[in-house]
Design brief:
Blueprint (H helix, E strand, L loop, with lengths): L27 H11 L11 H14 L27 H18 L15 H18 L4 H14 L3 H5 L3 H8 L6 H16 L6 H4 L7 H12 L8 H10 L9 H14 L5 H14 L18 H6 L21 E18 L2 E12 L10 E2 L2 E4 L6 H13 L9 E15 L3 E14 L17 E5 L10 H33 L1
The structure holds iron/sulfur cluster (SF4).
Length: about 500
């Protein structure tokens, strides 16, 4: 019935770019001036002089104002800028923060599967196992909530309990296991990293070696080295950045590389030599559970006495809030793109043991092995211009695309319907992709075997997937939403169809 020829590569452009970086519009020097009054431990005076304090408080009133959102274009930061003493923690401050954090963490840490220890003074294998667990959990936790990660982590560890087991997995299997977590690049790097470690024969044991593994950067290297191998190195993730920005009332742009370096230096000052892993986890835990972005729980915070943002917010007539730190950076505007998506569903009717059986299969195409969402499966999708988003134009573009798949259904297949399902807006970091979704339903009685050897000379890889395995197939998160949307559409259709005879019957009776 339909014949589809040649090739076309689908592209949802949407790389995860960081928006342009901007400098602070509030001079940190003004904030730092106030700190000498607020925190006597860093003052050159052994005792605060009440008169001086009053004067400084007055000057604080003059300078304390709302920290505005950063909007101005970036200016170069002098490379050899020397750091002021106020930019760092004093020895006393670092000691107090460290002690308070560890005390708090010992009592309040959450029970999480990746925190289970494998005995004290772990032997080599146990340490490697812990390193692998920390690595997997930290990668999963990037951009994903703890509550979501726990189930994924447990399933992952059941399937690949060691780095050597993971190294034997295929990308397809890893994508399936990752399905639903999003940011699939993380899964690809985990597999590449595992293969590289297995090839070397041993797990790297310090941050420097760990950074040599594909996909492991400063953050993951610091987490694994400090938690599994007790190396005194810092870790800075979004939570730590927020906590340290508030502790030190840092008002510079958190996306600026000089600010990030400053925060890493401060985290390095805090790291505990005997319990580096616990200290790092305490900082992260504090950011996740107490020092939250919108509603920090300062009353129950173990380091509130050392928090400069809190002190500033409590100054008489101050309009500063702790949530002003770190300052917000306005994101670059996202561009809007449009795509036509065609969900092709083939229903195969057969007879088994004198029973009528209907099986559903979906057509999926594989994204290119390199680039955004590499190697993942999606429904046939083609980008369209905004002026061509009407149904007729979209279908024309989609038909062209489908021809390129070199898929010939022949006469064994019947086109039952082609209906509009609706729109779904998928948000990437700098793209809003509006997907116009349609459902094409075909039926056959002869099974799908006849399609098996088709499309071999096509540059786009495609396959039919039984609906029972759709849940475990590595789909992009946008396509999974489209799939759910189509399922809802079909169940509504089916319930309408089953209700129809009843209403007809009612009408006949009346
Ligand atoms: S006192 Fe408040 S703002 Fe400061 S670190 Fe604690 S929770 Fe965060």
């Amino acid at each position: 019935m339909m014949s589809f020829v040649s090739f076309l590569v689908v592209s949802i452009s949407g790389t995860l770019e960081i928006p342009p970086l901007f400098p602070p519009s509030f001079p940190s020097s003004k904030l730092l001036t106030t700190r000498q009054t607020l925190s006597p431990s860093i003052s050159m005076d052994t005792k605060p002089n009440p008169q001086t304090s009053t004067q400084l408080r007055r000057s604080t009133r003059l300078t304390s104002k709302r920290i505005p959102t950063i909007t101005r274009p970036s200016q170069p930061v002098p490379k050899n800028k020397t750091r002021d003493i106020e930019d760092c923690f004093s020895q006393d401050e670092a000691d107090s923060v460290r002690a308070a954090l560890l005390r708090w963490y010992d009592i309040n840490q959450r029970e999480l599967p990746w925190r289970r220890k494998h005995g004290c003074g772990c032997a080599g294998d146990a340490k490697e196992r812990r390193a692998y667990e920390v690595w997997v959990s930290e990668v999963m936790l990037q951009q994903t909530r703890v509550a979501t990660v726990v189930a994924y982590y447990n399933r992952w560890m059941q399937r690949w309990p060691t780095v050597h087991c993971l190294a034997t997995a295929s990308q397809e299997e890893v994508n399936e296991m990752w399905s639903g977590l999003g940011y699939y690049r993380r899964a690809r790097y985990l597999l590449e990293g595992a293969k590289s470690i297995a090839k070397e024969g041993r797990f790297p044991r310090n941050a420097t070696e760990l950074r040599g593994v594909p996909g492991i950067g400063n953050y993951t290297a610091g987490a694994v080295a400090s938690i599994a191998f007790n190396e005194a190195v810092p870790v800075v993730d979004g939570n730590v950045l927020r906590v340290i920005s508030r502790l030190n009332a840092i008002s510079s742009n958190p996306k600026d590389s000089s600010t990030v370096k400053h925060i890493w230096d401060l985290a390095g000052q805090l790291v505990d030599k005997s319990r580096p892993g616990d200290l790092n986890q305490a900082l992260m835990e504090l950011g996740a559970t107490i020092c939250m972005p919108k509603n920090p729980n300062c009353i129950n915070c173990p380091v509130s006495d050392q928090c400069r943002a809190l002190s500033l917010s409590r100054l008489e007539t101050s309009t500063i809030k702790v949530t002003d730190f770190p300052p917000k950076v306005i994101k670059s505007k996202q561009r809007l793109e449009f795509a036509a998506v065609c969900v092709i569903l083939v229903q195969n009717d057969s007879c088994e043991n004198q029973k009528h059986v209907t099986e559903n299969f979906y057509l999926l195409v594989k994204r290119p092995e390199k680039g955004l969402l590499a190697g993942l499966w999606e429904f046939p999708m083609v980008l369209v211009a905004e002026r061509r988003t009407d149904m007729e134009s979209r279908r024309k573009e989609m038909d062209e695309y489908l021809k390129n798949l070199k898929l010939d259904f022949g006469e064994e297949f019947n086109l039952v319907s082609r209906e509009e399902v609706g729109e779904y807006l998928h948000i990437f970091s700098h793209i809003r992709l509006r997907m116009h979704v349609e459902l094409m339903l075909l039926t056959t009685k002869g099974g799908l075997n006849q399609l098996e050897n088709q499309g071999q000379d096509c540059q786009v890889v495609w396959k039919f997937v039984h609906d029972s395995t759709m849940e475990s197939t590595g789909l992009t998160s946008g396509i999974r939403k489209v799939y759910n949307m189509t399922q809802e559409f079909r169940s509504k259709q089916m319930s309408t169809n089953t209700q129809e005879p009843k209403s007809k019957l009612k009408r006949m009776r009346s």
